[in-house]
Amino acid sequence: MGRSSTPGEGTRPRVRHAGQLGWDDGLYEGEGKDRDGDSGGDAAKPESAGSGGGGHRSGSHGGRRGRPRRAPKGKKHRVLRWIAFSVAFLILGTGAAGYLWYEHLNSNLRKGERSAGNSGAKKKAPNAAGQTPLNILLIGSDSRNSAENLKLGGSKKSVGNTPLADVQMLLHVSADRKNASVISIPRDTRVDIPACENPDTHQKYAATNGIINESLRGGPGCTLDTWEQLTKVYIDHWMMVDFAGVVDMADAVGGAWVCVKQNVNDVSKPNVPGGSHLRLTAGKHKIQGEVALQWLRTRHAFESDFGRSKAQHMYLNSVMRELKSQNAFTDTGRLMNLAETATKSLQVSEEIGTVKKLFDLGMQLKNVPMDKLNMLTMPRIPDPKNPEAHVLPKPGASEKLWALLRDDQSLDPKDRAAAAKKVKAGPKAGAPASLGVTVVNGTPGDGQAATEGRAGVVRDMLKAKGFSEADTSTELGSALTTEVTYPHSAGAQGKSDALSVAKALGMPASAVTETPDGAGLTLTVGSDWRTGSTFPKTVEDDSDPLEGTESVNGAKTDDCMDVYWPYRQM
């Protein structure tokens, strides 16, 4: 046991490393097996001693020299019964303790609904191996609604206020688990926030165009819906942590390495109130506890929210390297300690509301190479309504970024170039007149009424392009974005055929996806294309989404933050 680095916290359990990357009820199954084995060995010692006592003896008593003496039958049976009872007791005791510990951890977890009910994005179909991408929304709450959180920063006037989601990151792990991405959206980004009802207060909020950190007023599920509405990426789960949780989990990881190029002292300045109170000398530092929270909250000294996002990415990369170097994913004892802190610190969506499910999620990252882990902040432009304080997603570049995630493509330019080359080398598409295409009206995907007759309109457009076998479905679908899908069994030929349909309508290649067998070549008209005879294109932008924004690669260990000059004085 040790003391928390949070002032005034009193005694708290101390553990070694970061919370969100390894928990399991399997820990206790494995731990129970180890203990059972050890206990069985201990219980076997009396038997060994007993048999030794009745082993070879020399002397004139009890028969011929060198011949073993048999133990009395009654005594032998009593020894065996004692051994059996001891082993059974230890097994039952260990199993009961493991179960109680597992239930204790599960009871620590705070859970909530995944979505606020306005989520129209569709989960991507499994690949040939039956795998699907994994998307988790990571939310950092600025809540001061506890004494613990208030001590770590903020004004007493903020107590009782609805928390804001000041940190929002989407973790994307590819279906094959060979690469991962983390995308941050700045807290002052103006977006459309859907209508939501807070699950705790039951207060209802109308749909609005506002700042994305305000989406938490409707609960984490509302923030998830906001992301899905913006990106059209299906998000599997959310995880949320507050200030105190960050401190506890930073203690749990045992520290992470960060670096600043100059001295940093992030305190209040004239006309710039607040500050994280981060104070470090130039160079590398291993930080944890409250200092880690200060690092993650530093904004002024890193010049902006965008600088803060980059610093957060550097910290997370370091945490991942620490976990891998410490074998944290395979060390049962460390994971058990980690589980205690993680389950107390995190609030999660109900689908991952058990220790086992959280552990399974942690294992998804275990084998992702660090050089295939890329983190960046969303491309953006100043908001014309408030250019000094707010931003908007950059047209073109941001849409390309979301399309990469929807298409489960790596953010690494080399990987994307290889994927494009592979598509070009694939089989040629069949002649348009030979392809049967089913057109589905999916315009209700945004929760509004369907556009009447929309499938027929788009079918006629395809027929005019030579797809004479195109026909409509009698059933309504649901899709936020228009897509062309082909069955897994059709393989590369199916993809080429689907791409030809998309190209004929002016749709991007990212609109083509594979689905499980059961349906043929299908065009689902989404709520993004309710009217018109031309597919709605985004603003042309040839730039790469990784260019001109703060990007960090997991394999880089020499990244250092620049410190804004007014905050360099110690």
In angstroms, what separates the terminal alpha carbons? Answer: 34 Å
Mean pLDDT: 78
Structure summary, number of beta strands = 25
Structural class: alpha/beta
> What are the segments in which pLDDT stays under 50 over at least 5 consecutive residues?
1-68, 143-147
Cα-based radius of gyration, to the nearest Å? 30 Å
State the helical fraction. 25-40%
Q: What portion of residues belong to β-strands?
A: 15-25%
Describe the strand arrangement of the main beta sheet, using strand numbers: 3-16-11-4-5-6-17-25
Described by strand count, sense and barrel closure, the largest sheet is:
8 strands, mixed
How many helices does DSSP assign? 13
Bulk shape:
globular
What does this structure look like?
The chain has 13 helices and 25 strands. The protein is of the alpha/beta class and 570 residues long. Strands 3-16-11-4-5-6-17-25 form an 8-stranded mixed beta sheet, with helices on both faces. The protein has a 5-stranded mixed beta sheet with strand order 21-20-24-22-23. The protein has a two-stranded antiparallel sheet with strand order 1-2. It is globular and about 75 Å long. It starts with a strand and ends in a 17-residue tail after the last strand.
